[in-house]
Amino acid sequence: MADKSSQQYLYAVARIRSKELSLFSKQTLDTLLSAASYDECLRLLHDRGWGSGESGQNAEDILTAERNKTWDLMAELVEDVSVFDVFLYANDYHNLKAAIKLAYTGDDPDRMYIHHGSVPVETIRQAVSERNYELLPEAMRGAAEEAYTTLFQTGNGQLCDIIIDRAALVAIAEAGKASKNPIIERYAELTVVAADLKTAVRCAKTGKNREFILRALAPCATLDLEQLAEATLLGVDAIIGYLASTPYADASGALQESPSAFERWCDNVIMEMIRPEKYHPFTLGPLAAYILAREAEIKSVRILLSGKLNHLSENAIRERLREMYV
């Protein structure tokens, strides 16, 4: 007999099944893609119920409203939404970075923050402005203090970024391990791998030294950072050669093409990974899969709208779109 937790997920998954029916398919994206203009795309999204229903919403308003709908639904379905915090850590550390840099410049526009994280934006702002890092989750405190001190003492924004970006990846990796859930563990691992490989390529192209490279890379289970750093010192071709000895050999072509092509490859691998979760109704897997499916959907719509706004061709936009969950 299923326990209380399993019964909770069974009900939640039943709700998710009905929500999955409204997820965008490839055909839906094709319809948006064939729209004559950016404004027509916005109208089509509005007709499909995207946004808050208010008139005059721009693309960012619509996408923010859709993300809010996802998390409001999760708050309805599970008693403790912190089980999904791993999906929000990137936002938290983006906000930490923004707060520190804005403290340095003396400016603090609200538009620089992402108002959907596991830590309220105001808490991060207060912690940085007062240098009271105890207000932050324990995992953020050391990085916050180090990044703040580094930026204010050296003015080196890149080093500030590295400290915070790496701390975000470490937090994601640790949350993945602690979750004991295969889909969240795999998501966390792929997130760190993707970031490390993109960092390695950037370091190779800009001629960074070994100390800088190792400081920027975050530990993960499926990459040997010492070998990756050695390859990075030799150049992009060596990084691609190193990939052949890892589970990510199939990514070589995408990595050679461009960082954005590699990011798309990673997103598509995650999509392939989460599809089987539909068949695990007694776990949080289908709910995690739905969150990731919605994120992929929102990302593709953002790419599509940006392409329309900048008058890119349909083929140029299509090449950037992610695979859909349905």
Report on the structure:
The structure is a single chain. With 326 residues, the protein is mainly α. It has a domain at 85-179: V-type ATP synthase subunit C fold (Up-down Bundle), CATH 1.20.1690. It has helices spanning 4-20, 26-33, 38-47, 59-77, 89-105, 121-130, 138-154, 157-179, 182-206, 210-216, 225-234, 236-243, 252-257, 259-274, 285-309, 314-318. The longest helix has 25 residues, at 182-206. The chain is globular, with a radius of gyration of 21 Å.
> What letter string, H or E per element, gives the SSE order?
HHHHHHHHHHHHHHHH
The count of strands amounts to: 0
Secondary structural class: mainly alpha
Supply Rg.
21 Å
Describe the sheet with the most strands.
Answer: none
Q: How would the global form be characterised?
A: globular
How would you state the average pLDDT, rounded? Answer: 91
Notable features of this structure?
326 residues; mainly alpha; V-type ATP synthase subunit C fold; 16 helices; globular
Annotate the secondary structure layout:
Elements: H1 4-20, H2 26-33, H3 38-47, H4 59-77, H5 89-105, H6 121-130, H7 138-154, H8 157-179, H9 182-206, H10 210-216, H11 225-234, H12 236-243, H13 252-257, H14 259-274, H15 285-309, H16 314-318
Offer a concise description of the structure:
The chain is mostly helical. It is 68% helix and 0% strand.
